[in-house]
Amino acid sequence: MEKKRRRLFRRKPRKLNRSMAGNGIMFFIMFICGIFMALPLVMIINNALKPLDELFQFPPKIFVRNPTLENFTDLFVLMNNSWVPFSRYILNTIIITGGGMVGHVICASLAAYPLAKHNFPGKNLLFSMVVLSMMFSWTVTQIPQYIIISWLHINNTYAALVLPAFSFGMGLYLMKQFMEQLPDALMESARLDGASEWRIFWTIVMPNVKPAWLTLAIFQFQQMWGNTGGLFLRSEELKPLQYSLQQITAGGTARAGAAAAVTFIIAAVPITFFLICQSSVLETMTTSGMKD
Amino acid sequence: MNKKKKKLTLSRKRSITGFLFILPWLIGFIWFYARSLFLSIEFSLSNLTVNPGGGYTLEFVGLDNFLYAFRAHATYKQVLTTSIGNMLIDVPLITFFSLFMALLLNKKFRGRTLVRAIFFLPVILNSEAITAAMNLVRTMMSGGISSASAEMAEAAAGTGVGLTYYIEMFSNLGLPDSIITYIAGAVDRISDIINASGVQIIIFIAALQSIPESMYEVAKIEGSTAYETFWKVTFPLVMPHIVTNVVYTVVDSFTQSEVVELAYDTAFTEMNYGLSSVFSLVSTVVTCLILVIVCRFIQKRTFYYN
Predict the structure, then answer these.
(1) A220: which chain B residues are within 8 Å (Cβ-Cβ)?
(2) How many domains does chain A have?
(3) What is the pTM of this model?
């Protein structure tokens, strides 16, 4: 008996070893893939710190020899010379990116809840419309979109960029898939306790799908951040930061240093946002709240 | 929901509440997206001419644009088939690669947020402004010698043990051609695949996060190995999100495909809006069909918690 017990206990560390070897191989694969993915970022950071002569060096070096902040000071000089005060561009970006993201997450989650957990006529039709709309590339429908925007008379306002973002199909789809996984019993118990649908949504559904809507927020932030205003914003004082930075890089070889700094800034902001969101995803210890 | 037990009035009330929840989204959807979808269909059936003073006139031509696209257009059919072929190669690979990566990134280790960020990088770097700036920096670095260096790189790739060597070796082993082409295509697109799987990894991580801890606890107590736990617990619970990711991947790879490029060029360089609408409509229908088939296939095997 005693021996048998011991053998049972001895088994455990052997399994641990095997899984550790497996982990080792997996981390190795991940490391290789990771290097390829991290390389552009390393390049961007190093380029931003390179003085001009190193930028033009051939063959190019990845790592910087004499790091300077020259590129950034160049960029700030260029910024100060812009026709519209630079803070205006930043404000525009905050309004467009923030508004589009928050609105989209809220609208998509609100709409996803009944689609996932309620029954009503026309539900399937609506859902297939959503999937169909995602399939339609918006580069191609720019013309109809422009016609609609000008028909609504919101051309050349923030609304032209922010409002369409509210009803983007992808978010609804993502949120629906996640909400479908919530156990029905959770909502039923809240209903029995007399909670209204509104209350169920905010206090039960949303906290439970926090990873999902944070993902959506990251996703939408990236989409809105990359927006240059394009067709819809014509006034210079409404253009987002991306547009003005693009103008700086369009200056060609003479502005090489500033361009490197611009790339760094454009990449750094979404990465920071991503890191913040991801660390709060980690904090949610998802429990289903069920006792069965 | 046990709808049958309740009275009609209550269920109706509930469906009204549900509808109110959807309303803000739906209004925006109908205004901005549904309408442009219908406008595109309208364009595809007519000949669009832009008026000099502004606005446009539509002249109904029936299915002429469709017939032209399939019978007379030089490249459309070929571009469509290659785009769909590439998509069929990419979708399963991206899905499994991202699931695999998500499993690894979901483990607890030091600096995992940073590693996750690295894997999300391609999505972030995929913006217009960054591409423009990166191109500028690249042209500066290579300067006037860029064309020479490109030739040198090509020459280097042609020598030694290349991809073709392996392909020949495998075909000598007697593997069927279709498998070899698939593998060769996949190897050829590894960097594309890694680059395209950023969002999918994030979706899978979120999915893995929402698996209740107690499930794993039960599996552990019952003495299942890591392998068994994956197939009996993780995989079934992540299954619904495999559908999500397949849909996302198809959409993503499609919107960046050559068909869309062709449609865009037709609209904005050749100014043929009708034909461009036909291109995008046909491709949309084809991808939708693929998606329906794939989703049916997966959904049959999907396990839902309820």
Answers:
(1) none
(2) 2
(3) 0.74
